[in-house]
Design a protein that fits this description.
Helix content is about 10%, strand content about 40%. The chain has a 6-stranded antiparallel beta barrel with strand order 1-2-3-6-5-4. The termini are close together.
């Protein structure tokens, strides 16, 4: 499962695929330089998810997870959440639970 975000500033879309509540792995339509602040909204919550980017790499289509839609979301972004609320963390845990 994943949580789909609409990125602010015309950044397209992203999907949160993994998270432990503090750190996050997501797939994005656009590249994000290390140190940048990615921000996106999910329809399930009123506050945006904000992520401080640690790494961003373009994934070859054959190595990206099948459910990702590698053609649409080719960038694997790793980072940490910035000022995430308990509501957001609980929602994310419920969605990403296997």
């Amino acid at each position: 499962m994943s949580l789909t975000l609409t990125l602010d500033g015309g950044g397209g879309a992203a999907e949160i695929r993994e998270s432990d509540g503090a750190f996050v792995v997501l797939y994005s339509a656009t590249a994000w330089p290390p140190g940048s602040l990615l921000s996106g909204s999910a329809k399930e919550t009123s506050r945006p998810y904000r992520v401080k980017v640690r790494t961003c790499r373009r994934m070859p289509p054959e190595t990206a997870p099948a459910a990702t839609g590698a053609a649409d979301l080719p960038f694997r972004v790793e980072g940490r959440f910035v000022d995430i609320t308990r509501e957001q963390r609980d929602l994310l845990a419920a969605i990403l639970r296997p």
